[in-house]
Amino acid sequence: MLSTKGQVIERLLGGAFICRTRYEDSWRFLRIPANREQVDAYLGQLNRLVVTIGTGPDTEVFFCGYRTLGDAERKKLSEQFRDICQALTPLVEWLVLVQDAAGQDAPLTEGMPVRLNELQTVIEDTPAFREQLGHICRYSLFKSTRVDVDGQIKLIFKRLCDLGYLIRPNTEKQIYLATGKLDYLYEVIRFIDDAEGLNLDGQAESAIQGQLL
User: What pTM, to 2 d.p., does this model score?
Assistant: First the structure.
């Protein structure tokens, strides 16, 4: 059985975004400076390090980045950057739909709940939202051929859980929680917004220096 440190290292190298919502045990472990130094020391042997984003101590998200960039690392980061960009439009449209349907002033962030049944009811009762949901489902990220709201929304939620943007703590309830990977997505969006009009491929390594492998 892996130690806590071993489990944290395995998750980081496996591409996890360690946040309080999804991996609270690992998140608390990394918040202790001495523990994080030990993890960094190990990752340093693999040209990796722990990267952090977040607006406060309780909203930190930890993930794995490169220490130095060679040709192989730049190539990998460029591929990851392109993959993220291709998924941005459907993800952003879904986030806007959730925010509008819930009547929220702020976008969905780590730890916030999404109640599938409530969202489904609002969408079914609002033609504009139904049309928007159908449009989102046609993106290759979701690839849904369903025409009913129930099938469409459940497929999207399952796909977002598979991608790590949502978790479902209790399988007996239709309540989902946003993970820290969404906060990372916002960082990417902010970068693209700041870099508008620039050669994004040339700037990819700056944008996702901390992108997971």
Answer: 0.84
Q: Which CATH code of 1.20.1070, 3.30.450, 3.90.320, 3.90.1150 fits the domain covering 4-66?
A: 3.90.1150
Closest listed residue to residue 182, CA positions, set 81, 92, 57: 92
* Residue 138 contacts residue 147 (beta carbons within 8 Å): no
Residue where the block lists tokens 């806007």: 96
Residue 211 has pLDDT above 80, yes or no: no
CA distances from 27 to 87, 143, 182 (A): 27, 33, 16
What angle in degrees, to the nearest 10, is found between the helix axes of 180-194 and 200-207? 140
| Rg of the chain, C-alpha, whole Å | 18
Name the pLDDT band for 74 (thresholds 50, 70, 90): confident
